[in-house]
Amino acid sequence: MNFKAELLVAGASGVLCHNLVFIHGEWHMHATSLLKLSAASFAAVAAFEAAYQGLSLASALAASGEICSTYLSCLFASMVIYRTVFHRLRHFPGPALAKVSKLWHVARCLDSKNHLLLERLHREYGDFVRTGPNELTIFAPNVLPTILEGPSNPFSKPAWYDSLQPYIGLTNHRNRKVHERHRRVWDHGFTTQALQSYQAQIKVYARQLERVIADNGPKPISANECFCWFSFDVMGQFAFSKSFNNLRDRKLHDAIRMIHSGMSLTGPFTPVPWLIRIGFENPIAGMARDLHRLLKWCSEQMDERIERNVDNLDISHYLIQGSAKRGTLHEDQTTLYGDAIGMIVAGSDTTASTLVSLFYRLVQHPEHMRKLQEELDTAGDVEDFTVLQKLPHLNGIVNEILRLYPAVPTGGLRETPPGGANICGRFVPGNTIICAPRYTLSRLDSCFERPTEFVPERWYRRTEMVRNKNAFAPFSLGRYNCIGKNLALAELRFVTALLVIKYDVSFAEGEDGKFVDGDLMDQFTATPGRLRLVFRERK
């Protein structure tokens, strides 16, 4: 076969591979294998050229490079033509490069500002934006209940939830029946009785946090660090019946750094789960190594909890007990590891971030600080969680912070059923990835009056300011909603009440809180920027 014929075969193979193979099904779990196959193919073609065409090594390598380049060029050309001209989403508006590849999205998200990027796209293109070859980002107010609510809701979790395979816990099950079965096990850890025992632990660690602040006196203190210490320690108690002693040692546990570094990988690369899989399976770069270290550490915490076999009714107790009763403790090992990862990240990072945003807004709006202090002064026993649950301004503040700063600003993707679905008045074809960014939805003027302003009263006295409550779903909705919602709310209420009733809080000298918003990062979960505060005991 002459060389031109070889190039023709290579080009035709590229087009055929796209149209007969890669255009069908999911390939993210095979990304590393495909890379290895590509390298092996290059070597095989070079060997063929040397052995059967009589070329020198250098010439064989050059010929192999040209043949493989032709194959890839035709493969990608076929993809580009299909995605821009023939794809079922071709009629939806969006950036031209987004129609071709999600790598465009990755390049725009390297600064972890996806929440702001999507907000700009909404202003430019409207409520339905094509943000990927097979992805729509929808900003219509009623999108969240459409894709999340209902026992027979046909929307499913897409490929992104496979990113940490084989560590698949409650939060990333894609199989609905498996998720429902696993959720029933988790439910035992969130009964009324279980929540009461966790509330006692919240009190213990909140008082430790208050002692740290008291010992610091009227000197500036990092709110980010303090709230990380608290949330990580209390998470350890909830999850594994152990403290990680951040508050005692007054320094960040190494695992917190691993969380932040590991999450910095998931943020920019969320649009391309196949790239996350390559990083996960080949931890060469620093972020990928830290993600592996984090997963290993989380797994070790679960292994240690199984070995300790303590009687404390923490969340892990119910998970381990469920597997032990079924006689599948060994088989469920990676599931338990996945649950450990979910508890550690969701149970610590999100609480700390929300508390930072909450105190930033309270200090920025001292009138709400004073109003809350007055409410707490006359509330009775502010260490009674039932009392706190009924305080209108406290709960208004918490809700307003969750609206302005959702813990998951743009994540929580869903996939339409094979037959497609009607979403907010428009038909969306089947197997389309749907992004419904809470950060933008909760700041829509059509849903909230004065949407970017901090107005806690909108949740109890000025309810007309909530124009469409469907845009507010900080803990998600439906079968995949956050199982720890009531526990998280209890933490937020108690810590806020404990500190606000005792202290007047202000910005540290030279601080105005601008970094909280300005440096906010969307790394699947939200990470606010730096905040330094001064706590002075009330007179």
Automatic annotation (TrEMBL):
SUPFAM superfamilies named in the record? Cytochrome P450 (SSF48264)
Indicate where this protein resides in the cell.
Membrane
Gene3D superfamilies named in the record: Cytochrome P450
- Cofactor dependence: heme
This protein's GO CC annotations: membrane
User: What InterPro entries does the annotation carry?
Assistant: Cyt_P450, Cyt_P450_E_grp-I, Cyt_P450_sf, Cytochrome_P450_monoxygenase
Residue positions annotated to bind heme are C482
On whether NAD is a keyword of this UniProt record, the answer is no
- Give the keywords, sorted: Heme, Iron, Membrane, Metal-binding, Monooxygenase, Oxidoreductase, Transmembrane, Transmembrane helix
Gene Ontology terms, MF aspect: heme binding; iron ion binding; monooxygenase activity; oxidoreductase activity, acting on paired donors, with incorporation or reduction of molecular oxygen
Q: Which domain of life is it from?
A: Eukaryota
Pfam families according to UniProt: p450
Q: Which family does it belong to?
A: Belongs to the cytochrome P450 family.
The protein's name is Cytochrome P450
